[in-house]
Write a structure and sequence with these properties.
Strand order of the largest sheet of chain A: 1-2-4
Strand order of the largest sheet of chain B: 5-6-9-10-12-11
Shape of chain A: elongated
Strand content of chain A: 15-25%
CATH class of chain B: Alpha Beta
Order of helices and strands of chain A: HEEEHEEE
Organism (chain B): Streptosporangium becharense
Number of domains of chain B: 1
Structural class of chain B: alpha/beta
Largest sheet of chain B: 6 strands, mixed
Pfam families (chain A): BON (PF04972)
CATH architecture of chain B: 4-Layer Sandwich
Largest interface: A-B, 20 and 33 residues
Keywords (chain B): Hydrolase, Metal-binding
Protein name (chain B): Icc-related predicted phosphoesterase
Helix content of chain A: 25-40%
GO molecular function (chain B): metal ion binding; UDP-2,3-diacylglucosamine hydrolase activity
Radius of gyration of chain A: 15 Å
Number of strands of chain A: 6
Oligomer: heterodimer
Mean pLDDT of chain B: 97
Chain lengths: 81, 237
């Protein structure tokens, strides 16, 4: 059986290197047959593609996508330095 | 001399799917800021198509726009063409050099470029051993040296360093410790501390925190979009 650390590393590399995602900062954790994805991306479509790429890189695992989509809010206030 | 309001954001990672979304948030920027600084990772894959979206989102704003590229903007090996495309849209692009903007008679000097990694004082790569390691750290050293020269020669009333990679660890809090060497280098902070600056802004560390300081006391702000959660931060100098 493949060690979960290697599965997580493979998924993390796939998310960074696959042209559909190119997301470098996604955290991947594997617990048994469950795979968890955490981090932040700029739109919902990118969030969906991350699940797709992760599923291809780790077939057979149950994918939990817990990634947040950044909501670009209006700028507020200012900081005096 | 009047206060300058510096708007800054990085890591907007635009492509066709986000066309128009950013522009909408830049409405009335002239009421909030005097200049907009873009701290790299403007695209996702560094393609010219993505760069055109960036150019269209940030062109013809009522405030000057100064940008540096990030690692994503280098991914397709076309950084010079991306920079040219942005310049054609009226965006100034720094590549380890400087620009001085006259804002109501106050000269704002901006020095910077992409920056690079290597790690932080006492826990960093050294210019030693295999040529691949020397090439890695040598790249950062050359960049830091150019920033030092640019800052030394800068004639300005206020001085800002604009980078993609982080010069300090403070603003990386929240990132895994193991990847710090790929998020920035203390050599960038050392160059700024040697010649003096009023503010350093950077991006790259999406899971980091906004506020930090160099060992020499220069305020550092991580303006990566996921860190700010808003279209841009505004810092008054």
């Amino acid at each position: 059986m493949e060690a979960p650390q290697y599965i997580a590393a493979r998924v993390q590399r796939a998310l960074a290197e696959d042209d559909r995602t190119t997301e470098l900062g996604i955290r991947v954790d594997v617990r048994g047959d469950q795979l968890y994805l955490r981090g932040q991306v700029n739109c919902a479509e990118r969030c969906r593609l991350i699940t797709e790429v992760a599923r291809e890189a780790a077939p057979g695992l149950v994918i939990h996508n817990e990634i947040d989509v950044v909501d670009v809010r209006e700028p507020v206030g200012e900081e005096k330095l | 001399m009047r206060e300058l309001r510096i708007a800054a954001v990085g890591d907007v990672h635009l492509d066709e799917s986000l066309r128009g979304s950013y522009r909408e948030r830049l409405r009335d920027i002239q009421d909030r800021a005097d200049v907009l600084l873009l701290a790299g990772d403007l695209t996702r894959h560094g393609t010219l198509e993505e760069a055109k979206v960036v150019a269209d989102e940030f062109r013809d704003l009522p405030v000057p726009v100064v940008a540096v590229l990030g690692n994503h903007d280098h991914h397709s090996d076309r950084p010079a063409e991306i920079a040219a495309l942005l310049r054609d849209a009226g965006i100034q692009v720094l590549h380890d050099d400087a620009t001085v903007l006259d804002i109501d008679g106050v000269r704002l000097g901006v020095v910077g470029g992409k920056g690079f990694g290597g790690g932080y004082a006492g826990k960093c790569a050294s210019d030693f051993g295999e040529r691949e390691i020397k090439a890695f750290i040598g790249h950062t050293k050359r960049i830091a040296d150019r920033w030092r020269v640019a800052l030394k020669e800068l004639q300005a009333d206020r001085r800002v360093v604009l980078s993609h990679y982080s010069p300090v660890k403070d603003t990386l809090h929240g990132e895994p410790l193991e990847i710090y060497p790929f998020l920035g280098s203390y050599l960038l902070a050392e160059a700024a501390d040697a010649e003096g600056a009023d503010l350093i802004v950077h991006g790259h560390a999406h899971a980091g925190t906004e506020k930090g300081m160099t060992p020499g006391g220069i305020r550092v702000r991580n303006v990566a979009l996921p860190v700010l959660g808003r279209a841009y931060g505004v810092y008054c100098l």
